[in-house]
Amino acid sequence: MSRTVITTGAIEFGTRAVFSDFDVVWAGPNPFHDGFAFGSEDGRLLFTNEDIQPVVEAYPATASGEAINGLAYSGGVLAVSTRADTTFWWLPLHQDERGASASVSAGAHGVVAMADGNFVAPMGHSGLLVMKAKAGDKIPVGVSKATEQVCFYRVAILHNQNGIEVLAFALRRAGIGFEAFNSKAENTRLNTTTFDQLDVVDVCAMEPKGLSVAAVGLDGTLILIRNALDLDVSGPVTMRFPAVAGVAYRLLSSCGHIILVTSKATYVFVDLAKEFLAGDGLAPIAPPTLVLPMEPIDACVYRDKFLLIVTADNSVLRFDLGMIAAGVPKKTAGSDLILLQPTRFQPDWKQHGVDRGTRELASI
Amino acid sequence: MPTLANIVDHPLPTQKTGFLYIFTPKHHGADKGASCWLPELPLEREFSIFDAADQHEIADDAGNLYGLSRSEEGGLHYLGIWFEQLAEFPFQEPGAKWHGYPSYPLKDVGPENRRGDKCKPAKEVFKKMYRAILISAQERKRLSKGDHV
Predict the structure, then answer these.
(1) Please, what's the largest Cα pairwise distance for chain B?
(2) How far apart are CA A202 and CA A207, in angstroms?
(3) Nearest residue on chain B to A296, alpha-carbon basis
(4) Which residues of A touch B142 (CB under 8 A)?
(5) For residue A177, what is the enclosing H or E element?
(6) Average pLDDT for residues B48-69, to the nearest whole number?
(7) Mind telling me how many Å the CA of A297 is from chain B's nearest CA?
(8) CA-to-CA distance for A168 and A225, rounded, in angstroms?
(9) Prediction pTM value
(10) Complex ipTM
(11) A295-320 as b/e: b if 16+ CB within 10 A
């Protein structure tokens, strides 16, 4: 395998990096150092610095060799997910030691690490994979299934002021799910909020500390929620921007902005989250919006500093969020800057609880 | 199409190879645990997906065929009740009738006796779809991750 070469060039608000010998499909923060991690279509991982230059050679990181769709790190263990499996790497404590790995033959849509060392991976209709990252004896890997037909598609972690972690799920037609994370409980209650005709495909936290959450439907409908665990006080606010084109792929939030990635463009709604959280949720918001036409594959936010977008032409676009925050509202003209007027509507929504039980899938 | 109570034969064979096709109750609502076609998807559309899969030879190593249906807006239609955007038509011996069902590109944990199954569709299937210009590079990369398009 030849060495990965990345060529960079300047673009408005950031940098474009073109990859060679590495079919990039996924991007995220480098869990070990400043910089980024990239996953390839053939299951390799590549770590770079913030200038998107490799710091080590790309290496195979999955047992299946399938395209990487998630990575998380906790307690000396790196978890890498693909549609076919989830691979865990126990990293060596000393340079002369070899790391060990084990793979669970269960595909996931991604993986996140909890504060207590557990990994959680949404596996679609198969349920939720939960595994505690620890070295030593065989480790049980649990699969948690809902008692009703629920598709665990995406997951985000919310943190309340007391350090409690709440999992927020995009559950497709079952809407959004919330659950205070408790790894010790075999049976838990997943509170779901279902919206009439909405197919929820992604979810994200709107602030580093808080239970506010944003979600997006396949058609680009945004759902903003002030408190995931208390929808009775202030229910979800739903809005649609008619000018948004394409199928919604990802939803991110950073620095008070909401970032919607669709099949045709990336939309940065400047200060939308900030204004929503500061207001009463009733006032209409028409945020300055940066529209970036492209063909995205995936995207992530890095430390409220950069927005990374993987594109179909084997490139990664690194946008400086500070430059966007400062530059976009000042612009008064230009084809890429518009004030998108949202349409507020209130689809029927209802809450109900779904029991979730865990069984052991395997030991690794 | 409502739930099927009996097997229904398609009247015509595929244009290229002459494969015969049947619509099965199992994948049309009779088996709640099975991958089922969307009730609103016409049977003729299901056959046309199979016909195109045969036409373009979108097959894996085992001879299973795979198909899709593109919407007028450019995206891929959902085919199944569990958001599947691809369909699988398992290989049949010569002379046997084919059938199919929606297939999601994510490996189910599955029952014990299926744990050894490979992830379907195989990566090669996505590459064939891409080479046949049935999907874009963007769609190939997202489908290979198990993402919707």
Answers:
(1) 41
(2) 16
(3) B138
(4) 25, 249, 297-298
(5) strand A176-180
(6) 97
(7) 6
(8) 11
(9) 0.93
(10) 0.92
(11) bbbbbbbbeebbbbbbbbebbbbbbe
